[in-house]
Amino acid sequence: MARALMLAAAIGLLIPPQVLAQAPAVPLNPLAPSNLAKPRPKPPFDLTGTWFIDMAGSQNSWRFGPPPTANKMTPETLKHFEASQKAQKEGKAYRDDIGQCWPAGLPLIMTRVWPVAMIQLPTAIYMVSHFMNSLRIVYLDGRPHSDPDVVVRTFNGESIGKWEGDTLVVDTMHFVNDHHWIDAGIPATDALHIVERLRLLKGGAVLEIEYTLTDPKSWEGEMKWTKRWNRVDDQEVTEVTCTPDLNSHIPSTQSEFQAR
Amino acid sequence: MKSALLCIAVVLASTIVSAHHSSAGIDRTKSVELVGTIKQFSWTNPHSWMEVEVPDQKGGTVVWKVEMTSPAYLVRAGWKSTTVKTGDEVKVTVRPLRDGSPGGLFVSVLLADGRSFTERPIATTPPASPNP
Lengths: 260, 132
What we know:
- The structure holds two protein chains of two kinds.
- By secondary structure, chain A is an alpha+beta fold.
- Helices cover 12% and strands 28% of the residues of chain A.
- Chain A has helices spanning 2-14, 33-36, 75-89; strands at residues 49-53, 93-94, 116-120, 124-129, 135-139, 158-164, 167-173, 181-183, 186-187, 193-201, 206-214, 222-231, 258-259.
- In chain A, a hairpin with a 7-residue loop joins strand 11 and strand 12.
- Chain B starts with 6 loop residues before the first strand and ends in a 14-residue tail after the last strand.
């Protein structure tokens, strides 16, 4: 009996105790009644409505480019950019992934010359672009950014918003690493970080966002842009999908006009 | 209306942003007038499109694929899903593809009953921007 107990003890020393994986704390979702009911300061404005990029000043005001010369491109980005310039001279589109049904991603999805519907709750702002119904959620419920080893990277990234006086500051990261472009020939990488400062102007008729973009894997320093949207009450955001047969009817998307 | 008529005219280019795709393959300095019949018209998002069957010089026909904007904008320009139908005789003006293949970006259509349609809004309060 004593030998059996000694043997069992010896085996016990050899086999480490089983360690159960610890499940991380999962935050309440923004629509959870108990999350919505938490006491919070009254927000300075409500973005609920439909917004359209203001192009009165320039037909190119939707673009996040061309890149300022102050931002030195990485060798890889420079290669893309020069190929894009060459393609443009040849009447071709360089890596027009959006035309091939890849998501536009942030920041372009905000200015894609389609209306964007926004629904603001105390806990989050839900944004749906009419363009391919791309969904973007800006969390306002106080959560931090997700663990980078857990988060599922996306084209619109993970957006966390905080109120600073009359401004909503939105910090977005955790982007995908491919098929995502800031502008023609300027790739976004998984190091892209976007800070947006949102203000409502003209009695709530105009939304202004100051953009600060950094992506050390694509360019050095910050790129800054300021964009404006007009509230459009007479435009609807409805179902739009990039179906597999779409491009067979859209000849300019065909391969002879595409440079890869 | 039955005969082939392809008139190429140099016009001033206008910059229009792209929606679902780049329009780099479109030659915006030219316009082509197609006289033919509607083979198919699709009233759909993100783009409507039409196919126009145009008689060629050899006694056959060539099908032109014509890209259009979304129905949300076409409605503001007076369009309905029934504005053109398969078999309608039409005169369609397009900005052609750069490589000369039969396709282009829609500019306007003239119907047999004399009505014409573009993609430009006819409302007194137009939307923020025309959207191809």
